[in-house]
Amino acid sequence: MLRTDAPVSEAAPRTRLRWWTELPLILLVYGAYSAGRLLARGDVTHAVDHGLAILRVEKFFFLNAEHPLNRLFTREPWIGIPADFWYASLHYMVTPAVLIWLFRSRAVRYRAARTWLMTSTFMGLIGFTLLPTCPPRLLSASHGFVDTMAQYSDYGWWGGEASAPRGLGGMTNQYAAMPSLHCGWALWCGVMLWMYGGTRLTKIAAVLYPLITTIVVMGTANHYFLDAVAGFVVMGVGFLLTRPVLRLADTFRARFGIRPFASAPVGLLAAPPVASHDTSSSIVSAGCQTSAGERLPRQRKVPATPGAAEPGAEPAVSPVDSGDETPAAAR
C-alpha cells in the first residue's frame, strides 16, 4: 500500500520553470520598474522638502550617520572610489547572480524568492511615486554633503547625474531615494545566501553585503539612513505578501487551464526537509510496502527448496526460543 507518512524530500517542481520564460518575465518587471521611475518624477520643490524633513527627523533622533560617512568618503579616495563602484554596479550584478543561482540549484525555492523580490520592487515603485525625495547629494552645499559620484567621476563610467553612464543621467529619476532598493535588494540577497548558501563563506557574505551596502549608500550621499530603513521595511512587507501573491497567481493559472507550479513544501525561508529511510518496514519500492504473505500482481510463487521456508510463511520457532510449553516444529 502507498505510504502517506514518508518524509518529503526537496524535489523539482511539478511544472518545471524554464529560463526562456523566466528571463522575459524578469526583464518585463525591471523594464516596468525603470519606466515607472522615469514617470514618477515628482516636483523638485516637494522632493527637496521631503529630503529636508527626513534630515530633520534624523537629527532629532541622532540618526544622521550620513554626514560623518560622507566626510570620510570625500576625504579618503581609497574608500570613496571603491564605494562609488560598489554603489554603481553591484546591485546590477549580485541580485541577478543570486537569482540565477537559485534557479539552477534551488528550483523549488526559486519561485517564492523571485515573487518576494518582484513584489517588493513594485512596492518601492509606489514609494517613489507617492514620496519623491531629494537625496543628500542634491541638497544645497549649505547642508554639508558632497556628491562623491561627481567627485570621483573620472575613475568610473558614471557622470555627475546619479550612477547612470555619462550622458544618460537624464534617463533616471534622481529623486527616487525613498525607499532605498539598493539596501532592500541587498537584504534579499543576504537572506538567500544565509538560508541556502550552506558554507561559512556564504554566511559571511550574507551579513556583509547588506551591511556594507547600507554604509555605501549613506557615505556616497545617495540615501539617508531612513531611506535604508524604508528599503528593509518594504522587503519585510513584500515577504509577508509573497504567499498571497503566489496563491493569486495559481488561481489565475487554474482559471485559464495552466498547470500550476509547485512551491516550496514548507515555509519560504525554512530549511529544506531531509529525506530519511525507515528501516523498520519492508520497503518494496519508493513509498510502497507489503505485508506478510502479500504478493505483487502477477508475481510468480517460487517453489520452496527442501528445508527452506515458504515465501511469506512465518519462520519456524525452535523449542529453546519459544519456551517449554511450545511444541517443536515438525521434522
Poorly predicted residue ranges: 1-15, 271-287, 317-326
Reported for the largest beta sheet, the result is: 2 strands, antiparallel
Determine Rg (CA atoms, Å). 30 Å
Order of helices and strands: HHHHHHHHHEEH
Counting helices, strands and paired strands, the structural category is: mainly alpha
| Helical run tally | 10
Helix coverage percent: 40-55%
Shape: globular
Determine the N-to-C terminus distance: 36 Å
| Proportion of residues in extended strands | under 5%
**Order of strands in the sheet with most strands:** 1-2
Number of strands: 2
- Whole-number average pLDDT? 76
Structure at a glance:
The protein is mainly α and 331 residues long. It is built from ten helices and two strands. Helix 7 packs across helix 9.
Helix-strand layout with pairing:
Blueprint: H1 19-39, H2 44-60, H3 66-75, H4 77-105, H5 107-130, H6 148-151, H7 181-196, H8 200-219, H9 225-255, E1 283-285, E2 288-289, H10 319-322
Antiparallel strand pairs: 1-2
Helix pairs in contact: 1-5, 3-4, 3-8, 4-5, 4-7, 4-8, 5-7, 5-9, 7-8, 7-9
Describe the structure.
- This protein has helices at 19-39, 44-60, 66-75, 77-105, 107-130, 148-151, 181-196, 200-219, 225-255, 319-322, and strands spanning 283-285, 288-289.
- It has ten helices and two strands; from the N terminus they run αααααααααββα.
- Helix 5 packs across helix 9 (225-255) and helix 7 crosses helix 9 (225-255).
- It is globular, with a radius of gyration of 30 Å.
- It is 53% helix and 2% strand.
- The two termini are 36 Å apart.
- It is mostly helical and 331 residues long.
- Strands 1-2 form a two-stranded antiparallel sheet.
- Residues 1-15, 271-287 and 317-326 have low confidence and may be disordered.
